[in-house]
Design a protein that fits this description.
With 331 residues, the chain is mainly beta. It has three helices and 24 strands. Helices cover 14% and strands 40% of the residues. Strand 3 and strand 4 form a beta hairpin. It is globular, with a radius of gyration of 19 Å. The structure holds calcium ion (3 copies). Residues 132-134, 149, 151, 154-156 line the site of one calcium ion.
């Protein structure tokens, strides 16, 4: 590979990494590439005498345990999430009432994002078990996995169910970035909805299924957008220099909740809500750390969020008023 192509590949993988990195884990192939790049840079600093050998060795610990990517069941008090506690990423389910955590996938590959079907009877998830990230379905106990996408040359991430349970939205990495696709729940009729330069990422649908909120860096900076579920009627909601991503529609108001680096107390990331019609913006939550993933509970009374502190992350339950209730995944 010539240096120009190598650099381009690194840039694409770096972008893919950023878009996978929202408080969860990165696909193993991306993480491996990222670690290799970090090692090359670290070795250069070591040779130049900028870092000591001890600092060089401890750099291996920069990827520690992440619990992230929560998805609250629409019908039960249970949260799907991903964790790399076994050495690579798997899907777990947390019973919020008892605190019991159960591992659902048992592969050497990464499973990162999972989503309950509206009736709670099927889980959609992404996995690298075929050698490349694809979209799968499984039963709520982790049995009966079936593959929906078959693209050895493309990365698919973050399957999310439409509210009627008939469609799945997901992100597919094509030349130049991720695009938002929808398909039937059996994998048929795959359509590219965003079809734009840059990276577009879906995390969920509007509660009535008519619209899709998403983030896109098509202007050169991540902003929050909304489009109709057929891809028409594109509307840009945020316009700022901050990194805005992880757009999730509130079930209780006509507003999109998201994570942003704008106007945060300690220069990290906070959670915000923007009204779809008026574009009025308000801050929901701002810890001293990096805050991601404002996911509503099934009874719409609390939220599960991800707080990343340093190099690890956990899932916390917070009140609607932005008060931390408890750490759901911390030991
Ligand atoms: Ca795994
Ligand atoms: Ca694929
Ligand atoms: Ca922005």
């Amino acid at each position: 590979m010539n240096p120009v192509n190598w650099l381009k590949t690194c840039q694409e993988l770096g972008q893919a990494l950023l878009d996978a990195a929202h408080g969860g884990q990165q696909p193993k192939v991306l993480r491996t590439t990222w670690i290799t790049l970090v090692k090359i840079v670290a070795y250069g600093l070591l040779v130049l005498g900028v870092v000591t050998p001890l600092q060089f060795v401890s750099g291996a610990e920069i990827f520690s345990v992440h619990n992230g990517n929560p998805n609250w069941s629409p019908v039960e008090n249970k949260i799907l999430f991903s964790s790399n506690r076994s050495g690579q990423s798997d899907i777990y389910v947390l019973d919020v009432s008892t605190g019991r955590q159960t591992r659902l996938t048992h592969t050497d590959a990464d499973e990162i994002h999972a989503s309950w079907s509206p009736d709670g009877k099927t889980i959609a998830f992404d996995s690298g078990r075929s050698g490349n990230m694809e979209i799968y379905l499984m039963n709520p106990d982790g049995s009966g996995a079936r593959q929906l996408t078959f693209t050895p040359d493309a990365t698919e991430l973050v399957p999310v169910w439409s509210p009627d349970g008939k469609k799945l939205g997901f992100n597919r990495h094509l030349e130049g970035g991720f695009d938002i696709f929808i398909m039937d729940a059996d994998g048929g009729n795959q359509v590219n909805l965003s079809n734009s330069p840059g990276t577009d990422i879906i995390r969920g649908w509007s509660p009535d299924g008519s619209h899709i909120p998403f983030n896109s860096d098509r202007t050169g900076n991540n902003e929050i957008y909304v489009m109709a579920a057929d891809g028409s009627g594109l509307q840009q909601l945020t316009d700022n220099d901050a990194d805005d991503r992880i757009a999730l529609w509130s079930p209780t108001e006509n507003a999109i909740f998201f994570s942003s680096s704008m106007d945060t107390a300690k220069g990290g990331r906070g959670l915000f809500a923007i009204d779809v019609d008026s574009k009025n913006l308000r801050k929901i939550f701002d810890s001293e750390h990096q805050d991601f993933y404002p996911v509503w509970s099934s009874d719409q009374t609390t939220l599960a969020i991800v707080i990343r502190e340093g190099t690890s992350s956990d899932i916390f339950e917070i009140s609607k008023q932005g008060k931390v209730i408890r750490n759901l995944t911390g030991r």
